[in-house]
Design brief:
The structure holds two protein chains of two kinds. In chain A, 64% of the residues lie in helices and 6% in strands. Chain A is built from eleven helices and five strands. In chain A, the strands form two sheets. Chain A has a three-stranded antiparallel beta sheet. Chain A has a two-stranded antiparallel sheet with strand order 4-5. In chain A, helix 1 runs antiparallel to helix 2, helix 7 runs antiparallel to helix 8 and helix 7 runs antiparallel to helix 10. The two termini of chain A are 23 Å apart. By secondary structure, chain B is α+β, with helices and mostly antiparallel strands. In chain B, strands 1-4-5-8 form a four-stranded mixed beta sheet. In chain B, a hairpin with a 3-residue loop joins strand 2 and strand 3. The longest helix of chain B has 26 residues. Chain B starts with a helix and ends in a 7-residue tail after the last helix. Classes of the chains: A mainly alpha, B alpha+beta.
């Protein structure tokens, strides 16, 4: 466990790394600052801090592979949370170290800067029993990344609302705008709380619920912030579009909100009982 | 007493005394029956000691963390022994008395509230000031021996059952706004008070109009200083959104569980059930964080509006689902079970209205948490 001072330094180092690097360069920076050691020492702090900052900076790294499988991993196809068998998705880290017999096809898609590849052919065989844990670990990491991206979108929209003057006043003075931004903050806070609870509960159900809340919140945040940013937010001259793109991919990885929500509902309808609630 | 030990002991007590504590009616019961049940459960919990944990010894408590209160209310609510609304008045009004009443007055009165011997109400809203609390008009003037109060309150929950009222009055000029408000602790048996329960769409006449006609209130019943009423109110409102809200989330958990048990096959879609479930998961996660902040001695403030917004959205989402999946009960049901679902469905419509409307909560978030400056 880190004390408050160490945590502050760790956070500052990660902030510096994520705001100036992405991809392979960020991997190198993380290696240099000892993120894996931190992961071994205090998993919750290492994951939550890095992924929120990564989301906030719109950066990427191979940390998701590390969190899930200590190395390159095949992710399920978009939307799915089942262990991939015939085909799946890989991060650029997987693409760079793909074993023989695997067919890779670059996916530019809506967010080319993420460097995703479509993976098919002979997928590396992994122990099916370890999938639920790997999935839950990955879902929590992605939930934090979604929250980070959401915070960045809120900050962009908030700044714009305070600076953009119409009818002789900043648009932040108008209740319609204020309520959209309030809704945005509430969504982010809900996701933050749900993710924290999932760390405490340590159940696959809680990780899935947290990812579902984070994905749902991020879509709400994107919708409201886009509207507040209006014209400028629709241009590529403003950074908003990068976050929107990123959020749509992140929500789809390891189970999108719709799939996870439906799965949770199906479980409840089968048992007709709620799982033990989060204890005080 | 630590939370884990308390949890075990309270659960054991509730198991052992389940029969005596159970309500003698099925479904919601009448408001009279609910109030009798509430007094019975609080009395038993007080006598067994549980109701005293989490409160300071100067008001008859046994000390310990406020988390203990959070758990007790959760356990009582989850088992359907109390309605969270009536039970949680303790959580809203006792802290106010502890912080603002004369120590002797708090020491005398709070135990009566805790052991269910008395019920108290909260006289805030007025016909002319629903959301704009700072504009309240119920007038208190200094006489030689006491305040003389004249005016009207509305939406006063359980006033017809209450022995006391935490009342906000206007003691400054009408223009003094939030600076000219004074809080006081009023005996509801005082001459000049008339209570008129309001019929509401969900059935129970919980909300009342309260009329004050030259009511005498002793000066030593003033809560805080003259003109400090706004602070009293601002400190009280977050309590509505902390422990009380945790109790309400336990109620929602219980009702979602009941919905799963009662709903006919094929009346529920997995997506809809899952959606309510994840909202409730997030609400409880948020509220739990608030319980821990309060227990750590943090001052609760505008951030509790986030909790209230989540509560209202979750409660309505749950009962929207109830309204659709149990339409026969909600729309046509004539038995106790149907009437309970109907009453709770209708009550949920007010979740975005009472305790600071959805709009007011968002105004608070925008102004205080997002620092967006003044509204035009």
């Amino acid at each position: 466990m880190m004390d408050a001072g160490e945590l502050e330094l760790f956070r500052a180092a990660l902030r510096q790394a994520t705001s100036s690097h992405s991809g392979k360069a960020l991997d190198d920076a993380l290696a240099e600052l000892g993120w894996r050691d931190a992961l071994a020492a205090d998993r919750r702090v290492a994951v939550s801090t890095l992924f929120e900052l990564q989301g906030q900076a719109n950066a990427t790294s191979s940390a998701l592979d590390v969190v899930m499988a200590e190395g390159p991993v095949v992710l399920p196809p978009l939307g799915s949370c089942d262990q991939p068998t015939a085909r799946g998705l890989g991060t650029y880290a997987f693409a760079n170290s793909a074993p023989d017999g695997v067919v890779l096809r670059p996916v530019d898609g809506i967010d080319p800067s993420l460097g995703l590849v479509e993976v098919s052919g002979q997928l590396p065989r992994t122990d099916a029993s370890s999938w639920p844990d790997a999935l839950a670990a990955g879902q929590l990491a992605l939930a934090h990344e979604l929250i980070g991206a959401s915070r960045a979108m809120l900050e962009l929209a908030r700044t714009h609302a305070l600076e953009r003057v119409q009818f002789d006043r900043p648009i932040a003075a108008f209740q319609a705008v204020r309520h959209r931004l309030a809704e945005t903050l509430v969504a982010i806070e809900a996701a933050g709380a749900a993710t924290g609870a999932a760390w405490d509960m340590e159940t696959p159900m809680a990780a899935a619920a947290a990812k579902a809340v984070a994905g749902r919140s991020a879509r709400t945040v994107a919708k409201h912030c886009q509207q507040v940013l209006a014209g400028i937010g629709f241009t590529t001259e403003h950074p908003f579009h990068r976050y929107l793109r990123r959020v749509l991919v992140l929500d789809g990885l390891l189970g999108d909100t719709r799939t996870l929500t439906k799965r949770l509902g199906e479980e409840l309808l089968t048992t007709r009982q709620l799982p033990p609630p989060l204890p005080l | 007493m630590e939370l884990d030990e308390f949890r075990t002991l309270v659960d054991a007590w509730l198991d052992a005394d389940a029969d005596e504590l159970a309500p003698p009616f099925t479904g919601t019961g009448t408001l009279d029956e609910q109030m009798t049940q509430l007094a019975k459960v609080k009395g038993a919990a007080y006598d067994a000691g549980w109701m005293r944990w989490g409160w300071p010894s100067r008001v008859g408590g046994l000390g310990g963390s406020s988390l203990l209160r959070g758990y007790l209310g959760e356990a009582l609510t989850r088992r359907g022994l109390v309605e969270p609304g009536g039970y949680s008045m303790v959580e809203v009004l006792a802290p106010t008395m502890i912080d603002y009443a004369r120590p002797e007055l708090a020491a005398e009165m709070v135990p009566r509230l805790l052991r269910g011997e008395e019920l108290w109400c909260q006289g805030f809203s007025e016909p002319g000031t629903g959301s704009n609390l700072g504009a309240l008009a119920c007038r208190a003037v200094r006489d030689r021996e006491s305040w003389r109060v004249t005016g009207q309150k509305v939406w006063t929950s359980f006033a017809q059952y209450s022995q006391r009222c935490v009342l906000l009055t206007r003691t400054g000029t009408p223009e003094s706004a939030h600076r000219g408000i004074t809080a006081m602790f009023v005996d509801m048996t005082s001459p000049g008070i008339t209570v008129r329960p309001l019929g509401t769409m969900h059935g129970g006449a919980e909300f009342c109009e309260v009329f004050f006609d030259d009511v005498s209130v002793p000066f030593d019943r003033t809560l805080g200083e003259e003109g400090q009423g706004w602070s009293v109110a601002m400190d009280l409102l977050p309590f509505e959104r902390s422990t009380a809200l945790w109790h309400r989330s336990a109620f929602l958990n219980r009702r979602l569980e009941q919905l799963l048990a009662d709903a006919p096959p094929d009346s529920l879609s997995a997506t809809e059930v899952g959606d309510v479930f994840v909202q409730l998961f997030a609400l409880r996660a948020r509220s739990r964080g608030t319980q821990y902040r309060m227990a750590a001695g943090e001052h609760l403030g505008p951030e509790t509006s986030v909790d209230k917004i989540l509560l209202a959205a979750t409660e309505q989402a749950l009962f929207d689902l109830v309204g659709a999946a149990l339409a026969d009960d909600v729309v046509l049901g004539g038995d106790a079970v149907g009437e309970q679902w109907r009453a709770q469905y209708l009550y949920s419509r007010a979740a975005t209205i009472y305790g600071g409307s959805a709009e007011i909560q968002r105004n608070i978030v925008a102004r205080r948490l997002l620092d967006l400056g003044a509204e035009t």
